[in-house]
């Protein structure tokens, strides 16, 4: 990718603040009075994470947990392991979680965490030590009724298992509900791993139907072929769409006839990236944005869609699998070009929705089947997508602003009705 990740993500919090400024004129004055509550995180913890490396040396890593807003319930949000993680980015990601849980009307606030580390450079034992020490450092502000972490970029179910075990050791008893996205045999939920990609697909279908774009035969391009991107690509291919272009950290591949997504998943599992896949033409990373496509799924990292890229993009629908992939100025270009953007705060909310189901199942110690999970997930996503679509039509605004209107009304109403302590 030609844009540097660090340069792009350092503006993530600014992007979020611009989004809040854009929604403010749509809010009733009595709620608008509380808008500043969304412009700063409630609580921010920066921790030093020292670990003993396999060679006996000691290395220090910097970690964060940010609780952006807790007005509607415990904090909820993932833990990112990436070598460019920084506070500004974690703050933005936590704020987007506040909006996301409210758009889906889940009883949570928003939080996010991260450690500045390249997990691929650590051995499995080092990764475990890092995870356990980080969990111990943030243990005073997490808990099933306080703040519930989950996986994000660079973390996975195994890491959530270690987090749950470490927290449980500190508490002296098993506390499954402290994290979601755990392995199924440790209180995880069926359907969680694929939930975010599934939500991208479900919201995509809803919008395609409304703009009369037949999904069968449509051309799809996906940036990022990890947890989110690969499942979304698979479901679109199953629905008859052609996945014509895929980009990941190893490069960009193209096939006008559409890839065999199952075979590509297998290749990525074996080789760690899309490069080297058969039946593919390698194109430059920047050429990704020129490809003839109907649907774009950014599913890698934030800060990818600039004004220049938005101006030349051929897609009719953008499904934001990633968090914060589009700059506010690029959003304006999409509005003027009549390109429909399904914003991250609803498009990729499938993961947090099934995380909510996992938390509910852990609380009850009673587990549902995968069909039940998917049925409930589809129902909530379709309902929320319909609400956002209708709000956009009513207020004559973009889907992003509509999602923010719905979310901010719910959050600020909760804030107002709780009152400001000590009154
Ligand atoms: P992942 O680590 O499984 O996959 C990330 C993908 O992005 C990989 O294919 C990687 O190769 C690619 N990538 C990384 N750097 C890249 C670069 N410079 N250029 C092109 N591709 C690059 O992560 P994920 O869980 O799939 O998350 C992807 C995005 O979706 C993130 O923005 C994340 O916050 C968001 N998200 C994830 C979930 C979830 O449940 N996993 C939920 C909501 C939002």
Spell out the key features of this protein.
423 residues; alpha/beta; Rossmann fold; seven-stranded mixed beta sheet; five-stranded mixed beta sheet; disordered N terminus
CATH architecture of the domain at 194-347: 3-Layer(aba) Sandwich
CATH class of the domain at 194-347: Alpha Beta
Hetero compounds? nicotinamide-adenine-dinucleotide
Q: What is CATH's topology name of the domain at 194-347?
A: Rossmann fold
CATH superfamily label of the domain at 194-347 = NAD(P)-binding Rossmann-like Domain
Tell me what you see in this structure:
This protein is of the alpha/beta class and 423 residues long. Among the domains are: 41-174, Rossmann fold (3-Layer(aba) Sandwich); 194-347, NAD(P)-binding Rossmann-like Domain (Rossmann fold). Helix content is 45%, strand content 17%. It has 15 helices and 12 strands. It has helices spanning 5-9, 12-23, 29-32, 87-103, 124-138, 157-171, 192-210, 227-238, 261-271, 307-312, 328-336, 344-347, 350-364, 370-395, 399-418; strands spanning 43-52, 58-69, 75-82, 110-116, 147-151, 219-223, 242-248, 251-254, 281-283, 295-298, 317-319, 340-342. The strands form 2 sheets. Strands 9-8-7-6-10-11-12 form a 7-stranded mixed beta sheet, sandwiched between helices. It has a 5-stranded mixed beta sheet with strand order 1-2-4-3-5. Helix 4 links the parallel strand 3 and strand 4. Helix 2 packs parallel to helix 4 and helix 13 (350-364) crosses helix 14 (370-395). The longest helix is centred in the C-terminal third of the chain and has 26 residues, at 370-395. It starts with a helix and ends in a 5-residue tail after the last helix. Bound molecules: nicotinamide-adenine-dinucleotide. Residues 1, 5, 151-154, 196, 223-229, 247-249, 299-301, 321-323, 348, 351 line the site of nicotinamide-adenine-dinucleotide (NAD).
């Amino acid at each position: 990718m030609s844009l540097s990740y660090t340069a792009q993500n350092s503006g993530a919090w600014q992007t979020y603040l611009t989004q809040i400024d854009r929604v403010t004129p749509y809010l009733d004055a009595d709620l608008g009075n509380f808008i500043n509550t969304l412009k700063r995180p409630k609580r921010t913890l920066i921790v030093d994470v020292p670990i003993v490396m396999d060679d006996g040396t000691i290395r220090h890593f910097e970690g964060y947990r940010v609780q952006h807003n807790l007005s509607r319930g415990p904090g909820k949000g993932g833990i990112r392991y990436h070598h460019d993680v920084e506070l500004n980015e974690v703050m933005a990601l936590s704020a987007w979680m506040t909006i996301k849980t409210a758009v889906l009307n889940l009883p949570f606030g928003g939080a996010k965490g991260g450690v500045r580390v390249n997990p691929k450079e650590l051995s499995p034992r080092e990764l475990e030590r890092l995870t356990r020490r980080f969990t111990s450092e943030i243990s005073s502000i997490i808990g099933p009724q306080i703040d519930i972490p989950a996986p994000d970029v660079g973390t996975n179910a195994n890491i959530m298992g270690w987090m749950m075990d470490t927290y449980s050791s500190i508490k002296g008893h098993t506390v499954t509900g402290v994290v979601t996205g755990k392995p199924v045999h440790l209180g995880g939920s069926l359907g969680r791993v694929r939930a975010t990609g599934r939500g991208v697909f479900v919201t995509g279908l809803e919008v395609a139907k409304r703009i009369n774009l037949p999904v069968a035969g449509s051309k799809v391009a996906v940036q990022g072929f990890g947890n989110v991107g690969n499942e979304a690509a698979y479901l679109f291919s199953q629905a008859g769409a052609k996945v014509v272009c895929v980009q990941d950290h190893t490069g960009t591949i193209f096939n006008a006839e559409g890839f065999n997504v199952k075979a590509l998943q297998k290749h990525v599992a074996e080789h760690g990236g899309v490069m080297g896949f058969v039946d593919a033409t390698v194109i430059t990373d920047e050429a990704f944005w020129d490809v003839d496509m109907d649907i774009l799924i950014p599913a890698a990292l934030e800060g990818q869609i600039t004004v220049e890229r938005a101006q030349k993009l051929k897609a009719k629908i953008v499904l934001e699998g990633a968090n914060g992939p589009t700059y506010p100025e690029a959003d304006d270009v999409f509005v003027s070009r009549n390109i429909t953007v399904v914003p991250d705060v609803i498009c990729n909310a499938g993961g947090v929705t099934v995380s909510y189901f996992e938390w509910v199942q852990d609380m009850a110690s009673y587990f549902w089947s995968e069909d039940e999970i998917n049925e409930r997930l589809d129902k909530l996503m379709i309902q929320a997508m319909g609400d956002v679509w209708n709000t956009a039509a009513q207020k004559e605004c973009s889907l992003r602003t509509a999602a923010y209107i719905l979310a901010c009304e719910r959050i600020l109403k909760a804030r107002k009705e709780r009152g400001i302590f000590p009154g």
